[in-house]
What does this fold into?
Amino acid sequence: MVRHGLKQILADEFKRADFGEARNAQEALDLVWKENWDVAILDITMPGRSGLDVLREIKKSKPRLPVLVLSMHPENQFAVRVLKRGASGYMTKESAPVELVGAVKKVMAGGRYVSASLAEKLATNLSGDSQKPAQELLSDREFQVFRLIAGGRIVSEIARELSLSVKTISTYRSRILEKMELRNNAELMHYAMQHQLVE
It folds into this structure.
């Protein structure tokens, strides 16, 4: 339904445009590789691989393709991370009905799209006035594991979901705790809730 609604918003504005839709990460990558798109609109949360992994693959194979990341997650969870990975913009699904057309036009023209509040945050970070949040020290995979632990998942469940070994997930957990200077899962969960990094 969300995909259909977004497509309709864009079709009303870009009358002669061709659209492609993907239900999961692999379909998204297949479409990007096969077709010569002007812009890709990518969700962070999709069946299959993480949207961050898909973004990395897209930027590796088609570095000039503008990618606008659209997510149900608040900006403080993923925006800076996706922009650093080469996305041309980040917007939340709740702002999409009003801002999507303008955002697409901006990134297709070679610009970057961010909300006013995110622009302010980025400017503050650049000025060096604020200390970098601890979660930004994590790699993409560590951040993914961090969010799953913070959401109450146990190591074996996370290992199954990410198709990794329990030992590998335990190693990620140790690195996360060390980098973020946390002692245990309870502190990790508290940090995640305090900083609104989990729903």
Notes: The beta strands are 40-43, 67-71, 89-92. The chain has a mean pLDDT of 88.
